[in-house]
Amino acid sequence: MNLNHLHYFRILAKTEHYTQAAKELSITQPSLSHAISSLEKDLGTYLFEKQGRNVRLTKYGRFFLEYVDSALNQLDIGEKKLRNLTSSSNGVIDLGFIYTLGAYIMPNLIKDFLNNEQYKNVSFSLFQGTTNNIISGLKNEKFDLGFCSIVENEPDIDFVPILEQELVLIVSQNHELASLDSIDLENIADYPFVFFNKESGIRPLIDSLFNKVHVTPKIICEVEEDSAVLGLVTVGYGIAIIPKISLIANFDVKILSISNPIIKRYIYLASIKNKYISPSANQFRNYIINNLSKLL
After folding, report:
1. CA 107, 142, 283, 98 torsion-angle sign
2. Residue-wise pLDDT tens digits, 262-276
3. Rounded distance between C-alpha atoms, residue 114 and residue 38, angstroms
4. Which domains does the chain have, with CATH numbers?
5. Rounded-to-integer distance, Cα 117 and Cα 41, Å
6. Cα–Cα distance between 150 and 132 in angstroms, integer?
7. Of 258, 260, 254, 257, whose CA–CA distance to 178 is shortest?
8. Phi and psi for 53 in degrees, rounded to 5?
9. pTM for this one?
10. DSSP code string of 71-137
11. Residue 87 confidence (pLDDT) above 80
C-alpha cells in the first residue's frame, strides 16, 4: 500500500472533488484517479462513488478514513518529534556519565554548552552509572555519548581523553594516618580498605596501583559510587583510594596525596566508532573536545 495514495485518499475525502483535490495536491487529475483506483484495487473495495460532478465516500470509505486519519496523524507527530530530536538547535542528547562527574563537572559542562545562543534549546536526557553501564548503554544505543574510564578490548568504542584526575587516599579525621599529608602505598597494607566494585571503571586502575608496590589490600567492603565510599570512610569503616573530586569537601575526611606509586586517572569521552549521532550530540561532542580546557 502506497503512503502517498493514503494521503491522496484523505484529501479527496475532504474535498469530494477530483479537480479540487488534484490542485491541492499539486498533481494532475489523471494521476489522482490512477492512485485512487490502485488503492481501491489493493483493498478490494470501492472507497468513493459518484454524486453528480462530485464524489462521496462509500460506507467502506468512511470506515477506512478513520484509520487513515489516525495513521497519518501519528506519522505527522512522529516526524515532528523526530525532527526535534535530531535538530541541531532543538535536539535531545542522551548522555551517560560516571558518578564521579555528577556533582560538579557534568552540570557545569552542560550549563556552559547551553549558555551559547545556538544551543540554548537543546535538551539532555542524563544517566549516571559505572563505566560498564556507560559502555553497555552506548552499544545498545541508549546513549549518544558517554563520559567514563577507558576499557580495554573495546575496538568499536572511540575513547577521547578529556580530563585528568589525581588519585588520593582518604581517611577519617580521627584515623591514625590523618596526621600525614602523603602516603606510600607500601606502608598501608595492614589497613582495611573500602573499594570500588569490579563494575567500576576505576577499579582496574586502583588494582594496578597495589600491584606496582606488590601489596594485597585488605578489602572489607566494595561499593559502586563515590558518595558511598566517602560516607563509609567518614565513619571510620575503612580507608579508600578515590579521585580527587569536589564532592570530598562535603565529607569529614582527610586527603593524603599518594607519593608512591605516582599515577593519574583519565576521564574519556566515549562514543561508538563510525556510528551516526544527531547533529546536536555531535555539536556537544565537538564543543567539549574543543573547549574543555576553558570550561574546567
Report:
1. positive
2. 888 889 999 999 888
3. 51
4. 3-86 (1.10.10.10), 92-161+267-295 (3.40.190.10), 167-265 (3.40.190.10)
5. 53
6. 10
7. 254
8. -85, -10
9. 0.68
10. HHHHHHHHHHHHHHHH-TTT-EEEEEEEGGGTTTHHHHHHHHHHTSGGGTT-EEEEEEE-HHHHHHH
11. no
The answer to whether 128 and 102 have CB atoms below 8 angstroms apart is yes
Nearest-angstrom CA–CA distance, 156 and 274: 8
CA separation (Å) from 86 to 132, 140, 183, 276? Answer: 26, 18, 50, 11
Q: All 3 cell numbers of residue 146?
A: 558517554
Residue among 165, 138, 170, 168 nearest 154 (CA):
138
Q: Which of 3-12, 70-79, 248-257 has the lowest mean pLDDT?
A: 70-79
What are the grid coordinates assigned to 206, written together?
Answer: 586502583
Amino acid at 153: N
Question: Strand 157-172 and strand 253-260: pairing?
Answer: antiparallel
* Cβ-based burial of 85 (10 A; exposed 0-12, middle 13-18, buried ≥19): middle
Question: Which residues on neighbouring strands pair with residue 85, listed in sequence order?
Answer: none
pLDDT in tens, 125-177: 999 999 999 999 999 989 999 999 999 899 999 999 988 889 999 999 999 99
